[in-house]
Amino acid sequence: MTDANAILSAMTISERRLKHTLGVAEAAKEIAKTHFPALDLKQVELAALMHDFTKEYPYERQLELCAKYSIELTDEERNNPKLLHAKTAAMIASERFSLSTDICNAIYWHTTGKPAMSPFEIVIYLADYIEEFREDASCVKLREFYKKALSKELDKSIALNKTLVRSFDTTIKHLIAEEQTICKDTFEARNYYIDQLRAFNF
Ligand code: DGI
Ligand code: FE
Ligand code: FE
Questions:
Q1: Atom of ligand 1 nearest to the CA of 186
Q2: pLDDT for the residue numbered 53
Q3: Which helix (H) or strand (E) holds 149?
Q4: 111 lines ligand 1 (CB under 6 A)
Q5: Among 103, 85, 64, which Cα is nearest to 20's?
Q6: Residue 136 confidence (pLDDT)
Q7: What pLDDT, on the 0 to 100 scale, is given for residue 79?
Q8: Contact assessment for residue 127 and residue 24, using Cβ atoms and an 8 Å cutoff
C-alpha cells in the first residue's frame, strides 16, 4: 500500500515545488472537509502529493512518458509543455504507486479542470490554485474570493461554484494576455460551472 512517505522519498522536485506540494495537501484536506466530508483525507493527501510529481521533468522526458503510457495528445497539448505533467504524473500514480482511479483522475485534470468534476477532482484542482504558498496576484485574489464567498454564502456549494467559475475566468484571461492557446477542457469547464450557477439561480 503506497503511503505519503513512499511518494515523498521518490519525488525529485525543488524545495519551492515541495513547499507548494505540501501546501496543496493542506488546502486539499481543508476543501474536502468543508465540501465533501465523505472523502478519505488520506487519499486526498496522496493525490495532492502526487499532483506535480513530474512537473520539473524536461519536455523530452514528458513526451517519452506520454509515448510509454500511450497518452494520446492533441497538437495543442503536445505544443504546451505545461499541460503534460498532469497526464504523466497521473500515469505514474497509477503504474508505479498503484493509486486508485479516483486519485489518478484528479491528478490528470488538475491543470485544466473539466466539466462535471468529481469531488476528488475539484478538491485537487482548487487546492492547486489557492494553497497558502501561492504568491502570484491572481492566486492570492482567488484565495481571498473563496474565503469571502464561504463566509457570505449560506450554501457552501454556491461559494465553491462561484470560485470555480472565477478560477477558469482568471486562467483564460491570463492565457489571452500571454497570447497562448486555451485548451477546450478549460473552456468547457467554465461553461459548465456557469450553467451550474444559473441553475442555483444566483
Ligand atoms: O503545476 P502548477 O504550476 O502548480 O499549476 P498548474 O498545473 O495549474 O499549471 C499552471 C500552468 O498551466 C499555467 O502556466 C497556465 C497553464 N495552463 C493552464 N491551462 C492551460 C494552460 N496553458 C495552456 N496553454 N492552455 C491551457 O488551457
Ligand atoms: Fe501542476
Ligand atoms: Fe501544482
A1: 27
A2: 97
A3: helix 137-152
A4: yes
A5: 85
A6: 95
A7: 85
A8: yes
**Half-sphere exposure of 179 toward its Cβ, with a 13 Å CA cutoff?**
0
Helix pair 156-177, 137-152: axis angle to 10 deg = 160
Measured from the Cα of 180, ligand 1's closest atom is: 24
Residue 142 CA, ligand 3 centroid: distance in Å: 15
Which phi and psi (to 5°) does residue 98 adopt? 50, 40
Per DSSP, the residues of 85-145 read: HHHHHHHHHHHTT---HHHHHHHHTTTT--TT--HHHHHHHHHHHH-TT--SHHHHHHHHH
pLDDT tens digits along 37-77:
999 999 999 999 999 999 999 999 999 999 999 999 988 88
CATH number, residue 21: 1.10.3210.10
* DSSP 8-state secondary structure symbol assigned to residue 164: H
Q: Which three cell numbers stand for residue 46?
A: 496522496
**Contact between 175 and 182 (Cβ < 8 Å):** yes
Number of structural domains in the chain: 1
Name the residue at shortest CA distance from atom 16 of ligand 1. Answer: 82
Q: Tell me the residue range of the domain where 25 lies.
A: 4-200
pTM over 0.85: yes
